[in-house]
Amino acid sequence: MLKTAVISVSLFYLSCYLFDVFLLGDVTFIGGVLRFGVILPLTLGLLIYLGRDNPIQHKEVAAIGVALAANIVWCVILLSSNSPSVLSYFYAAPTFQMAITLAAASPFRPALRASIFTFCLNYSAIFFLEGVTIGYVMQHLVVYMPTVVMTLLVSHHLDVEARMGYLRAAENEALKRELSRQNKDLARLSVTDPLTRLSNRRGTDLELLRLRNETPELAESALLFIIDVDHFKAFNDGYGHGAGDMALKRLARAMRRALPIDAHLARHGGEEFIAVLAGHPPEETHRIAEDLRRAVRQLDIPHELTQDRNRHVTISIGAASGSMATTRDFDDLMERADRALYAAKADGRNTWRVNEDKSETGQSESPGERAGEPHSGGSIETTEAEPQRDVA
């Protein structure tokens, strides 16, 4: 906008050389030299300066400076003439006022200072014009002063509007950033369990969708663990829900540390958790399950209400391996891991079972280890694991 204003005012100013020729024939040469030899190069230099990466305030001041120089040159041209038409021509002085306050579109304060300078310049030169009288000066002021006042009022209005527009834009931008932040927080909260800070069921659904879309080859080979806290209702009833919440937080942190960094761990509901590991071979299932069981047992959270030999908070784990490339595949994997979890519960808890394969005639669970008991190895062809004693 500033460049456009400068070009428009400069073309008008240079075209006024025709008035010099027709009205002031005795200063044609000096008018041409000053307008085209001084102001035109200044204008071209100003346009180059405006095209560079300079602060807009500096550009505005430079534009006002060139306008003031043009006013000075015009006064010199008129003072050099002896033509009677000078007095009529001098009524064009308000145009410089308008150029400075409106065309340059500068802020109000610089425009006000430039207007005062222009006023002082013009009314210092007016007394040296050929044939000037006090009556002419007063008549000129009658024309000039309303122009000064009106252009300054318009300049102030434009400046206020520009500032208000900037503040509105800044406020809107701040509101957009705040809304974006809140949307991100809401999106994060919608997939996060508020107690354990793990993913919830919706978070698991989104993670499965991401894996299927971004890394479908990893979704073809996955491990799934369903983890249930043993006797947790009795713990809540006996120690209080505050202690129960604290225990779940500690369990979540311990299991998160025990799992590989690429594992997805989520609170599936109540005291049940699930862990999904995409792209891991079935051979890792036993080790990861035991790492989870051991990490929780080593917390040594007392639980005297278990009604069995385990006197600490423990977990039972059901695991399965296979594809989760589709929703049906994942539901099947969940069902197999759930059956393995029931087998671990039936075997006295604080243990794990792995559903290693699926067939039409039955399933195969691999027995897990409880604290102090070695892994027996191999598999057993039953849905209920043979009871084992916990010596922990």
TrEMBL record:
Residues 220-357 form the GGDEF domain. The keyword Transmembrane applies. PROSITE patterns: GGDEF. GO terms for molecular function: diguanylate cyclase activity. Pfam families: GGDEF. Its EC number is 2.7.7.65. The chain crosses the membrane at residues 28-49, 61-80, 86-104. Residues 348-360 have a biased composition (Basic and acidic residues). It catalyses: 2 GTP = 3',3'-c-di-GMP + 2 diphosphate. Keywords: Membrane, Transmembrane, Transmembrane helix. GO terms for biological process: cell adhesion involved in single-species biofilm formation; negative regulation of bacterial-type flagellum-dependent cell motility. This is diguanylate cyclase. The lineage of its organism: Bacteria, Pseudomonadati, Pseudomonadota, Alphaproteobacteria, Hyphomicrobiales.
